[in-house]
Structures are given as structure tokens and as C-alpha cells.
Amino acid sequence: MKKMQKFISLALAVVMTAGLLAGCGSTSAGTSAATTSGASASGSTFKIGGIGPLTGTAAVYGTAVKNAAQIAVDEVNAAGGINGSQVELKFEDDELDAEKSVNAYNTLKDWGMQMLVGSVTSACSIAVSEKTKADSMFQITPSGSAADCVKYDNVFRVCFSDPNQGVASADYIADNKVATKVAVIYDSSDVYSSGIYQKFDAEAKTKNLSIVSAEAFTGDSKTDFSAQLQKAKDAGADLVFLPIYYTEASIILTQANSMGYAPKFFGCDGLDGILAMKNFDTKLAEGVMLLTPFAADATDELTQKFVAAYKKAYTDTPNQFAADAYDAIYAIKAAAEAGKVTPSMKTSEMCTAMEKAMTTITLTGLTGTITWTADGEPSKTPKAVEIKDGAYVSMK
Amino acid sequence: MVSFITNLINGISLGSIYAIIAIGYTMVYGISKMLNFAHGDIIMVGAFVAFIIISGLNLPAALGIIAAVIVCTALGIAIEKIAYKPLRHAASPLAVLITAIGVSYFLENAALLLFGSDPKIFTSVVPFTNVTIGPFLIPGTTLISILVSLVLVILLQFFINKTKPGQAMLACAQDRDAASLMGISVNNTITLTFAIGSALAAIAGVLLCSAYPSLSPYTGAMPGIKAFVAAVFGGIGSVPGAMIGGILLGVIEILGRTYISSQLSDAIVFAVLIVVLLVKPTGLLGKNIQEKV
After folding, report:
1. What ipTM, to 2 d.p.?
2. B137 in contact with chain A, both atoms CB, cutoff 8 A
3. How far is the alpha carbon of A89 from chain B, nearest alpha carbon, in Å?
């Protein structure tokens, strides 16, 4: 018998070690690609560089940023440029790799880049910000959401930071009186989800929202949510906040439906994409609200014009990354005009002027009306959308 | 009280799925004395086969289940022949255990390559959804899972104890050398065990994904490990023990998640395993066989 006991304990040890190892691993593949816009290089044009993943697993994000930035630059140039000077955009691939992102930065600097839009992803953006800080170059990341992305004065961002989504969600629910008793189901093994939850929890307290149950799950057990839902139901929650990705949310919606529990569901940008899931009964998502910076089917003129231009140029519907990039270019334009920046200035002078000007501008962009604080964070009213008849409909 | 019973029902729902996986696990272990860590991934393959037939080709659910059983049986036999049989006489039992982990990763990564990492939504094969009794709601998949695992336990007990191939299995489990001297083909018997175990995995896969409709290459991994715990809990090698262990484990997991901590639910499950092994090393229904020196 001893033998079997030993055997089983050995077996368990092996499984657990294997589980640990399975968590490791990295992805990096593909080839690098670079593109240039048609404009010619000279001292009288602004040279804006862009960095993002154009190949590899996050290619969707980088491509969207590159495409939308190009649309914005073309529009700006057609309307007379920035302070009378044309704008040139050159975009480099970083394959979602921080080291390659720095290489891309060096390549762009050799080209004569004066301002940077990027990097698209958080880790790459943080790596590049070390270089822009040392070189005093103005940097604006469209979508680097980690807190550390904007730790230097010369770096700004367009998207909400992860924690700010939590604050914005709590504010929206409280200010619009969507609900008073809130339950939260979050992924404690994911930094995005738990980051939002912590800020949501803190903000809810100051807004007198009562969180009646806050239940976690982990990446290892994300198929059964009956206990979490039952607790939310027993606690009488009329809204369940889901700061998670759409895959788990779709299971939660299915299970809530089968147990006959129908509260209001509210999520962040991670829920964006739930309607595109194959085989998912979109009726279950009816009435789900989510906070997202951009909805491609919003009816305002700016969005419609952008979506039409994007579809025409790239036969694809733009996502929120595209919208962030579009706003980034217009933020540069607004700040450069406010700070009276010209292409003949030195890069560091330009950076100082831009830093000052960024805090003074108000940009009406695709992702809302935005102002910036000196620490690089955008301040904008979050847009909430509600799912109605299987489509995202903007709320007021 | 109402909510306690509802939680109990949720626990039994989850447990009934563990039970059905654990039956396959424990049966393969009981006969071949080897832990088939790829069992969870065979479940995933079965679910994918059913998914392709039902959702991809729009054929009836019954056809999907049959196809899943056939494919998994063939896969189980192939894995046994290619990966496990050559190592059966290896010096250390670890060799075949490590190979099983290798097979598990091979299946996961092959599925990742074929189907991608984005989760698919599985259409339930259970024809009715819920049964309501008073204030309680019992999911249809739970009833079916419990029914199926009960039927499987009875059939397997009958097969092992009353039929010739079943007796051959028992003989192999007790003493392989003696069994082969008695004219039993040990290789064929173990292959048969893997065939049956994998067919059970296919059924488990379809039921797992009917109850929790998200299907990805990693779908089988965690339920597989939990079912292994359930099998050890119930007494590894004992088919009724696996069923009882599975259901108890599901109930413990849900009650722990509800009344102790939702973050610690997995920790509680594995803590239970440790306690059981300390107090009763053979599990609830495990036989305490003295080893002869």
C-alpha cells in the first residue's frame, strides 16, 4: 500500500509542477514590416513616428492604429496641416516585443522622427518611454493602458487606464442611478480584471453604491459560476458588474438565464466583442450595458465619417484601437497649434511646448471630449452602450 | 434554507460532471495501474468532434455523440499502442507517467493548431433545459449526467464482474504475469481498457460542454485534474467510488465557494484531497490490499 501512496503523491507533485510550467512561455513570430506615407522629407514637415504590432498575435491592434492614424494624418494634411506644415507618418512593426519596439524607435529616430504615436501595447510602450524620456521626445500612446505607461512627464495616453475604468464604471452607475445594490464577479488571477475591481470598489464607497457581494474566480476554474451568481441573487443585487473578458461573460449570461436570474449586467471594454461570438445566443446579452470608449455604430457625425472613411480605405470596421489612434493624431494637432509648435524646432523644445500645451487643450474626439492632466492621463466622460436587438446602441 | 439547497443542487450538477470523468479515469487506473493524464484531453477531443458534427455540419446530436465515441475510442487505442505500450516494462513507472503528460500537451497543442485558442460555444445536446420543483430549479444536464453516470457504473460493474473480458481485466489488475500464464492476452486486455475508458471520455466531453458550453483546447485540463482528485477521493480503482467521489467533490467545491471564499475554492478542493489521503489513504471505497513481501 505504501507503494501506491508514494506513487500517487509523486503523481500529484508532477501534475502540479507541470501546471506551473504551463503558465510560462512567450510568443514572438512574424517578420518586420515598415511603411511610409507618400509625403517627401524636408525641414518644413512634421515627422510623426508610429510603433505597434503589425504582425504576430496582436497584429489586429497595431494594424488598426496604423490605419486610423493614416486616415487622421491624411485629413489633417488635406485641411492644411498643422500650423501650415504638412505631416508625415512612418509606422514601424514591433511584433508585440518590447525589445523590437525599442529597435523600431531607433529606426524612426534615424528617419528624423519628432513626435511618437505609440507603442500600441502596454509593455512595449513602457519600454519605449524610457528612450523618449532620455531623448526628451513627445510621446502619446493610443492604447497603452497599464498605469506605468505614462509615468514620465513627456508621455500621454488616449485610452482610459485599467484602474480608471473601474472608477468610471462606478461613477456611471451611481450618477445615472442604474442600480443601488451591486454585485461583482471578477477574475482574481487577471491583472486587468482585479485592477478594475479594486478601483471600482473604492469609488463605489465614495458614491454610496452598496456592493452586496464581490465574488472572484480564477483562470483555472472559469466555467462554473453558479455559486457566484447564487450569492449575487441571494444578496438581492439588481446589477452585476463584470470587469472581465467576453468569453467568461457569455457563460455567466447563459448560466444566469438558466437559473432564472435577470439582473442588469454591466461591463467594461473587455465585454466588447461578445456579440461577435459564434453560436452565442445574442438574446441573452439583451440589455447588457458596457463602458467602451468607442462604438462603431454610434450615430454622431464624427464617428460616422470616420467609420465610412475607414471602411472605404481598408474594407473593415474600425475597433476602439483605431479610434484611440485617430484621437491621438488630433490631440497632437490641437496641442501643436496651442503651443505654436513648428517643424523647425528642436525635438526637446517641441516636447516641452507640447507637454505644456497638452494640459490646456480640449479635444472633441471619437472617444469623447478629452482633456489631459499633467501626469498624462486623459479625462473624458466614458461612453456607455447598451445592447439592444443584437447591436450596440449608445446611451446618453 | 432555500439558498442552501440551491447551492447543494449546483454542487451536485458540477459533481455529476466530475463523476462521469472520474469513472473513466479510475477504470483505466484500476486495470492498467497507470494514471492516464491525457484523459482530460481526450474529453476535449470528444467535445470538439461532437461540436464539429453538431454545430459545424448541422447534423443531429445523436450522430455527434456516436462520432465522438468512435473517434475517441480509436484515439485511445492509438495512444495506448504508440505511447504507453512500449514503456509498459520500463524500469520506472515514472516513464509512462511522464509520457502521459507529454500526450496531454501534444493533444492540447494539436487542438490549438487545428481549432485556434478562441473558445467556441457548444450547443447543448440535452433536449430539455430545466425541471422546476417548488422553488428549486434543477438543470436538465444535471439529471442527464447523474442518470448517465449511474447507468455507466452499473454497466461497468456488470461488465467487469460478469463477462469474460471483464474477468480478464480483473485478472490483469491482480497479477499480470499470472494472468498471461492462464492464457489471457494482457496486451489486448489493456487495449480494451483504454478503448472503453476513451469512449467514456467522449461521453463525458459531450456532457461537460453541454453543462458548461465553452469549448477550447484547454477545456479538459482542469476538469481532468479535478476528476483525478475525485477518483482518488472515492478510492482509485473503484468505479462506484469514483461516482461518489465526483459528486462529493462538486458539492464541496460549490459550498466552499459560497460559504468560505470564492477565491479559495480550488485550494479547498485540493486540501480535501490531502486530508482524505492522510486519514484514509485508499480513499472512501478503496480496497486495503496488503502487499505480500
Report:
1. 0.75
2. yes
3. 34
B83: domain range?
2-279
- Determine whether B113 is exposed, middle or buried from the number of CB atoms within 10 Å of its CB (0-12, 13-18, 19+): exposed
pLDDT digits (tens, 9 = 90+) for A164-220: 888 888 888 888 888 888 999 998 877 778 888 988 999 888 888 888 988 888 877
Min Cα–Cα distance to chain A from B291, Å: 6
Domain check: are A248 and A313 in the same one? no
Closest chain B residue to the Cα of A5, Cα to Cα = B281
Q: Which three cell numbers stand for residue A237?
A: 443585487
Which residue matches cell numbers 471564499? B261
Question: Is any Cβ of chain A less than 8 angstroms from the Cβ of B220?
Answer: no
Mutate to test the interface with B, among A2, A4, A10, A277 (most CBs of B within 10 A): A4
**Chain-centroid distance, C-alpha A215:** 25
- Alpha carbon distance A109, B80 (integer Å): 58
Cβ pair A227:B35 closer than 8 A: no
Give the whole-angstrom CA distance, residue B240 versus residue B230: 11
β-strand partners of A392: A387
Give A220 to chain B, closest Cα distance, Å.
6
Q: What is the per-residue pLDDT across B208-265, written as a single tens digit (0 to 9) for each?
A: 888 888 888 888 888 888 888 898 888 888 888 899 999 999 999 888 888 888 888 8
Q: Is residue A340 within 8 Å of residue A138, measured between CB atoms? A: no
> Which CATH number does the domain housing residue B233 bear?
1.10.3470
Q: Which residues of B touch A7 (CB under 8 A)?
A: 93
Cell triple for residue A342? 513648428
Q: Name the residue range of residue A278's domain.
A: 163-292
Q: How many helices (H) and strands (E) does chain A have?
A: 11, 16
- Looking at the structure of chain A, the number of domains it has is 2
